[in-house]
Amino acid sequence: MREITPLSPGDCFTVSTRERKSLDFPLHYHDEYEITLILNAKGAKRIVGNSIGIIDDVDLVFIGPNLYHAWFTHKCTSNQIQEITIQFHKDLFNDPFLKKNQLSLLKSMLNNAQRGIVFPKRTIIDTAERIINLQEKKQFGAVLELFSILHILSLCPDIKLLSDPGFSDDKIPYKSRRIEKVFEFVCNNYEKQLTLLDAANIANMPPTSFSRFLKKRTGKTFIEILNETRLGYASRMLIDTNFPVAQIAYKCGFNNISNFNRTFKLKKQCTPSEFKETYSPGNVQYI
Fold first, then answer.
1. pLDDT tens, N- to C-terminus, the chain (287 residues)
2. What are phi and psi of 202, to 5 degrees?
3. What is the DSSP annotation of 124-189?
4. Structural domains of the chain in order of their starting residue, each with its CATH number
């Protein structure tokens, strides 16, 4: 469902606070960036892109434009759930502004939001009160406070990206042209049987050196990146097409259905069929 947010063209951002007994707003997307803070909702289910997870008593997520997202009651027993949502225009920070040296961390965070960012508990503790009180700020002071919150979030070293590469068409830039070329190569050839040597050749590096370089820059091995990309494309097909699961597996480069099911369940905590059922229009708002 595409949401028309309450953010007007004349405003920089909007803040809404809701007290809820349950979380049942349908899976949706919108053109704006969104920061969502959920309190007192342990056991609720979060969907962002193709990521499905169970949250703790607090949850703080930064979501980019046009990325599916929703929270559902699931196993949450609290009837005092608090939801604070900040939404701002995607052109609030234009490209020339973000190219300034002092804004490199903010630019990186905005790029990562295209896959959805979840923050650790200590960052939530550092920012929750400011997020809750943001709507009390007025005029330019409110804008400065939003920028300050974004700055604190951009400094967090332990973020987790939620949705897999390949699920969204957006390309996330990296601080290495070699890494970007490898990701582009993987996205263009994920259905083929790729090897570390193939990727190392694209980066113009010996395989051993490239493997260390990739792990240092991304924290992941080539196989992990390849599988995440394949799962991103597979998730998209599970949602958008009626192809059988086996056909999707082979279309996305998995050499057998058992390997696909095993890899998918390990990453998503559900089978491909269960994932498809989760996103079906008749069931998504009742998870």
1. 788 888 899 999 999 999 999 988 888 899 999 999 999 999 999 999 999 889 999 999 999 999 989 999 989 999 999 999 999 999 999 888 888 989 999 999 999 999 999 999 999 999 999 999 999 999 999 999 999 999 999 999 899 999 988 887 666 666 678 888 998 999 999 999 999 999 999 999 999 999 999 998 888 899 999 999 999 999 989 988 999 999 999 999 998 899 999 999 998 888 999 888 887 755 444 33
2. -65, -40
3. HHHHHHHHHHGGG--HHHHHHHHHHHHHHHHT-S--EE-SPTTSSSPPPP-S-HHHHHHHHHHHHH
4. 13-161 (2.60.120.280), 177-286 (1.10.10.60)
